[in-house]
Amino acid sequence: MVVEVPVTEARAEFSELINRVGYGGERVVITRHGKPLVALVPASEAMGDLSESSSTVTVLDLGSRTGSTGSRTGIAAQQATNPKARD
Q1: Structural domain boundaries, residue 22
Q2: For position 77, what pLDDT does the model report?
Q3: CB-based contact 44:56 (threshold 8 Å)
């Protein structure tokens, strides 16, 4: 079963969506302005797809959203300061 959820609702109910996907096996498509943006799928399903395509899996440790100086240190901030991080 595929469920579509607007990004604003997904932000508010992220942990619930994770539980539905992880424990219930549901697929969730997050939309922005009614258009599909990203999908949440069970890890077993995603890992199966990745192993078949011989892709490399990278685990990100996003840590806290702000550093000790109060500046943003999340992935978006890293990409903004290091354009090669997007490749």
Answers
A1: 1-57
A2: 58
A3: no
CA torsion through residues 57, 60, 82, 86, sign: positive
Number of domains making up the chain: 1
In the DSSP assignment, the letter for residue 2 is E
Contacts of 10 (CB under 8 A, 6+ apart): 17, 28, 30
Tell me whether residue 76 is in a domain.
no
Q: Does 72 reside within a domain?
A: no
pLDDT at 62 over 90: no
Nearest CA to 23 out of 8, 4, 44 is that of: 44
Whole-angstrom Cα distance, residue 50 to residue 46? 6
| 77, 86 contact by CB (below 8 A) | no
Q: Is the pLDDT confidence value at 51 over 70?
A: no
> Of the ranges 4-8, 31-35, 37-41, 53-57, which one carries the lowest mean pLDDT score?
53-57
